[in-house]
Each structure stands twice: as C-alpha cells, then as structure tokens.
Amino acid sequence: MKKKLISITLALAVTLSAALVLGGCGDKEYPVSVANLTIEEEPESIVVLDPSAADIISFIGYDVKMVGRSDEVDQEWLSVAPTVGSAAEPDVDEIVASEASIVFATLDLSDDIKDELKASGIQVITMSQATTTDELETEYNNLGRILGGEITGLQKGEQAYQELLDDMDEVKSTVAASKSTDVLYTVCYIYTEDDELKMMTSGTYGDMLLGYTGAVNAAVNIDDNTLDVDTLEIANPNFIFYADEQTLENIKSEAILSKLTAVKNNKMLMVSSAQITRQGQTALDTLQKMVEFMYPELASSSSDDEADAAVEANATVAETTAAEETTEAAAEEVTSVAEDYGITVDDDLSLEKGDDNDNVKSVQQRLYDLGYVTDDENITGYYGDVTEAAVKHFQKNNDIKETGTADNATIVAMFNSDAAEAE
Hints:
Blueprint: E1 32-34, E2 37-39, E3 46-48, H1 51-60, E4 66-69, H2 92-97, E5 102-105, H3 111-119, E6 123-126, H4 133-178, E7 186-193, E8 196-199, H5 205-211, E9 216-217, H6 229-235, E10 239-242, H7 245-253, H8 261-264, E11 268-270, H9 273-277, H10 281-294, H11 296-302, H12 304-320, H13 322-335, H14 358-370, H15 385-397, H16 408-414
Parallel strand pairs: 3-4, 3-5, 5-6, 7-9, 7-10, 10-11
Antiparallel strand pairs: 1-2, 7-8
C-alpha cells in the first residue's frame, strides 16, 4: 500500500474554480479549460512552487514532468528535481531555462514575477487548498486534466483520489481490527497562529484526518478555531497532536492544558503544519505516523520482517566477533551511567527526530551534563532541531558518524562514563 494521506485547509484563496469546464470535443485531450484558463496542449515540463500541489501531482503520477521546484517543495521523493529558489521569489531565469510551460505557484508569488513568466510564454496556475471532500476531488481532477488531458488525465486524477480514500480506509480498518475494546479515544490538534493557540475544528480536512485514526476530535462540535480551554478540559483528550515546539511550550505553560491527561502522560506528538496540510503522499504518511503513535502494536507488527532481518544480521556479526563483543559489553556494563538517568539502554533502543518520550528527555539531560545542550529549557522530552544538533556534535567528538540520529551505538557511547564532553 502506498503511503499517502489527506490535509486540512488553512483558508487559502481559491484561484481555480471548483467547476469543471470541459474543453475540446470527441476524443480530443486538449485544449483543456479550467475556470478562466485554457491549456492548449499537454505540458511536457512543469515547475512546481507549491508543496501541496506537488504532493497531489506526485500522487497522480505526473511528478515525472517536474523539471524544477521551490525550496518549500521539500518532499524527499521529489528531491531529484532541481530547486529554483523560494516559492515567493524564484529565479525566473532558471525557470525559463528549464523550458517549463507551466508554473504551479503559491499566493506568495508577486504579480511582477507572474508577469515576467507570462511574458516568457509560461502559464502561472495558483491552486487552492480544498476545504471539503468535493473540493479535494475536483482539485485532483483538475490537476489530472491540466497535466494529462480531458480523458487520460481526468481518469488518472479520479483514480488517484479514490486510491487516496481507499488507503485511508484501510488504515482505519486496521485500527478497528486491532482494538480490543469499543471505547473511542479522544484526540485534538493544536497549533499557534498570531501568537494564539488554535485547535482543529469540525469541517476541516484535519478533522477528517483525525477521524481516520479511529478517534474522535475533541473539537468536533466547534466551528471557531480559537482554542477552547473549557472544552478540552471536559473532553480531556487521550492524545494531543501539536504543530511545533512553540505550541508545545504554550500548551505546557497554560494552567488548565498542562493538567490534561495527554500532557501529564506525555501522550503528545508533533505533527507539523506541512505534514497535515499537504494533500497527497505526505498526508498518508502523517496518518500512519499518528496511528502508530496511538497504537504502538501496529508499528511493531508492520516492521516484523525488518526486525527479524536485523536480528539475524546482528547474530551473524556476534558469532564472528564474540570475544570482542563480550569484552566491550562487560566494559559498558561496568562504566554505564544510564541508571543514573533513569534510562534502560538495551540493544533495541534508538531515538530520532520527532520522537517525544522520557528516553529523549534522559538523552537531553545527559547531553546537557556533557555540555552539548547549553540550556536546560531544551530538556523537554521532544527530539527537535536542538537535540539533533547536539547529537551531531556528540557524534563528532566521539568518532561516530554524524547523522543527528541517536542510534543504539550513539546512545551506548553517550551513557558511558568516559564519554567525551563538549569542547
């Protein structure tokens, strides 16, 4: 199953109408008319500045046409396309040199740059983010038509949209089959906007996304996205998803929110605005991320084969270096300070960016004591940019490959009493 999923909308202006205005006649693919635009022939090359549009284009299968992207189009699977600068201020000369016939832009693109591109014979299309399932389906269909024609492209758009829904339904069915009780979890998504806490409410795609986790959105009956502390206090959600570290700090500093069960039990996971607003592959990845956080048994069962392979590989290595490993293990057992930090360093323990748990907090405390984390306010339990940088610094000083990920070897070295301190 492809990993794909859906997004919420953050009130973007609609540039493309939801109405389909079919062009051509008979079995002709082009011209295609959408709203006030007419695409005369199938585009061979495109530049995509809008990361959400890029997600859908990729999901439909037309990412092969991408010859350029903005810095904001940071999906790993699209990295093969060269960047042309930021979405707001792309390099017009590079776009022209790419011989793209269409640029999919964001609302940040200035009129001056649009005029430059149009003067070079390049069409500029600004897609909206859907606010209903019907709008999302129309967006898939419109992008399919623009890039593949009235017959072939429309069919690909329709099939991709249906596949998106089917994949989401499959995730929800997997959750339902794994649950041993009919009790529903309550969840919520909180973000910060204009220095105020907001929550994802009814009618948004984020609300729909939360529903596919098999849980109930605590704000399901609320239309105003201003965070309602009283509602959350009553709902007392089992899990909280938050947009960024600033939002996490705001939650923990609010008197009532800080006492919620999810906060006290550390049942909180960062899901960035990019992850929850993109409408194709990123969306399904995000749904899977949330589901595996809520139901850890699903994460372990989905990776059994990989785990078995890793165990077998480790066993082979152990057999060839038994004496050396035994000596090293004994030394680690004698010199480990892990117990002092309340962490159990076993063979399977590894941590990475995005993790949020007590083990991360122990690692952060150790890095602070060693001088790699300089501010104790960063000992939060969330593995963010600060922790990643500190881990890289530690790895560099301890002759470990600098990845920023606290793999097992890094954690073992970190809690060795002889671990190198920061310079």
